[in-house]
């Protein structure tokens, strides 16, 4: 019976070790959600308001992230709401660091119309750091105005 107990304890310890090694990915939401709204007048005195908001979901283990957007358009006349439309989703973006680790991040977004959006609807910046070492990378993505985004990342130096 003592042998069975030792084998059972060894198997349980092995599973606990494997569980700690196979760490699950941890996702973190950006702290800088923004919202921008615009209004327009249509024929027949219809008012339309459109609001968009962006957020980023970051995989703290792999440094992959998702850019998420939600929008709401509301059309009304002087008496009632005529139409409400909502849309949204997340787009997967590439890794910021090549290897898995334990990372922190933050993000910010320009809102159109904006003096920073020279070629299109604006851009965004992602900052990511390694929680285990003095390592930080800044990435900026802007629209080229030709249908594609240009993105560059730079490792920061410490002086």
> How many domains in all?
1
Number of helices: 1
Molecular shape = elongated
Q: How helix-rich are the residues, as a percent range?
A: 10-25%
Share in β-strands: over 45%
- The overall average pLDDT, rounded, is 78
Task: Report what the structure shows.
The N and C termini lie far apart (64 Å). By secondary structure, this protein is mostly beta strands. It has one helix at 2-21; strands spanning 27-29, 34-42, 46-59, 65-76, 81-93, 103-109, 123-130, 136-143, 149-155. Helices cover 13% and strands 51% of the residues. The protein is built from 1 helix and 9 strands, in the order αβββββββββ. The protein has one domain (29-155). The radius of gyration is 24 Å and the shape is elongated. The strands form 2 sheets. Strands 1, 2, 3, 4 and 5 form a 5-stranded antiparallel β-sheet that branches. A 4-stranded antiparallel β-sheet has the order 6-7-8-9, with no helix packed on it. The longest helix is centred in the N-terminal third of the chain and has 20 residues, at 2-21. A hairpin with a 5-residue loop joins strand 8 (136-143) and strand 9.
């Amino acid at each position: 019976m003592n042998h069975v107990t030792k084998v059972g304890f060894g198997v349980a310890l092995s599973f606990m070790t494997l569980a700690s090694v196979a760490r699950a990915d941890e996702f973190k939401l950006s702290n800088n959600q923004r919202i921008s709204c615009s209004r327009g007048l249509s024929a027949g005195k219809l008012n339309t308001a459109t609001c968009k908001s962006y957020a980023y979901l970051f995989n703290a283990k792999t440094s992959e992230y998702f850019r998420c957007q939600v929008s709401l358009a509301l059309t009304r006349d002087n008496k009632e709401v005529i139409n409400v439309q909502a849309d949204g989703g997340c787009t997967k973006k590439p890794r910021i660091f090549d290897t898995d680790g334990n990372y922190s991040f933050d993000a910010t977004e320009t809102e159109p119309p904006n003096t920073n959006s020279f070629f299109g609807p604006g851009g965004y910046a992602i900052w990511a750091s390694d929680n285990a070492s003095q390592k930080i990378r800044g990435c900026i993505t802007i629209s080229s105005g030709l249908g594609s985004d240009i993105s560059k990342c730079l490792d920061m130096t410490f002086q």
